[in-house]
Amino acid sequence: MENYMETLAKRAKAASVKAARIGGTQRDRGLRAAAEELLLQKKHILEENEKDMKTAREKGIKQSLLDRLQLNEKRIEDMAEGLRQVSALESPVGEVLSMKNRPNGLRIGEKRVPIGVVGIIYESRPNVTADAFGLCFKTGNAVILRGGSDAIHSNQAIVSAIKAGLRKEKLLQDLILLVEDTSREVVQDMMKMHGLIDVLIPRGGASLIANVVENSTVPVIETGTGNCHIYVDESADRKMAADIIENAKTQRMGVCNACESLVIHAHALDMLPGIVERLKMHGVEVRGDERACLVSESIIPASEQDWGTEYLDAIISVKVVDSIDEAIAHINLYNTGHSEAIVTQDYNHALKFQDEIDAAAVYVNASTRFTDGFEFGFGAEIGISTQKLHARGPMGLKALTTTKYIIFGDGQIRS
């Protein structure tokens, strides 16, 4: 007898086959209709989100994670705008990447096609629900969404609005399916749907991602945690460095592209007290090594564990180094392959940092907070991949496609 997850996966598989018959114009109309419904049902979505927020507050969830869960009018408008932007983008599906003539007369080409059924396992980020649908729908994929139990009411309301938009355009509603059973057993079942789900994308904390990577029989695109660093070089512009650090750490603290670690050259330590004071204004606790602690009484001693921690909270670590080589070595040892930045006026140091840092996104003189599909012009993102196969960095439309070879002949047989 089929279990709940198998039934859902089979529905998605059937829908993904039918999705190939939906033209690009129809898909774009469906995306715009879904965006409109999100706005029309804004009041209901906010009411359902408040149910999740109330439960989360009662559980004592920390403020930075409450911020990830909370919706407001602006965030719903951003979700709708994301769908509209995705509808306006050119779809990569159907693109012929190459076409070569072989000596035997065969013409062999490579064509971009949908993956099929995409499964997303994510934590308390309701905006992922709309973003994932938009990108998967645009690329002809069906999507199965398993959000966190903390956001179940929000996700149900968002999916209901999206389905209403699809109904208006007479489009297949099974192209978006929400896993409404919030038990952990269902997650385990989802990870075993090899042959029905084509790829799983986990988005969330380290334990969630590790669980999916280690236990899934379905291929996984690993999205990573973000122990993101900013390295302040000895030549850094003082005001620029302070502005970037304040933004990267405090603009939103519970997101994966927030700065968790500050690495600073010993010759730039004169600016550290001022940076600490700016961070303190946002309630940020600063943990530093021995040399950092000598510079400011507000810095408390860091432990070895601090260098590798993604806090998602009002905490930052500070490491003092004597060279750019030491900075790069420290960052590559402790980073999670997400986003790293250097603040410098030295052109050669900027290029060296970008060449030698092992991460999906490497910045020169800019905040790590820009690692985001919306900011990169993708309309939205399915996640930020920290692996090196298939996709890396913010994953937009192309990351949700694969390729097939198309071969044209005129009767050739192999001897």
- Helix/strand order, N-terminal first: HHHHHEEEHEHEHEHEHEHEHEEHEHEEEE
Q: What's the helical proportion of residues?
A: 40-55%
Structural class label: alpha/beta
Sum up the overall morphology in one term. globular
What's the N-to-C terminus distance?
48 Å
As a whole number of angstroms, the C-alpha radius of gyration is: 23 Å
Mean pLDDT across residues: 93
Low-confidence stretches: none
Task: Give the percentage of residues in beta strands.
Answer: 15-25%
| Total beta-strand segments | 16
Biggest sheet record: 7 strands, parallel
Strands side by side in the biggest sheet: 10-9-11-8-7-12-13
Count of helical regions? 14
If you had to describe this structure to a student in words, what would you say it looks like?
The chain is 41% helix and 19% strand. The protein has helices at 4-19, 24-40, 42-58, 63-69, 73-88, 126-138, 152-168, 184-190, 206-215, 238-250, 272-280, 290-295, 324-334, 347-356, and strands at residues 96-101, 107-114, 117-122, 142-146, 176-178, 199-203, 228-232, 259-265, 285-288, 300-301, 315-321, 339-343, 361-364, 384-385, 393-394, 401-408. The strands form four sheets. It has a seven-stranded parallel sheet with strand order 10-9-11-8-7-12-13, with helices on both faces. Strands 5-4-3-6 form a four-stranded parallel sheet, sandwiched between helices. Strands 1-2-16 form a three-stranded antiparallel sheet, with no helix packed on it. β12 (339-343), α14 and β13 form a beta-alpha-beta unit.
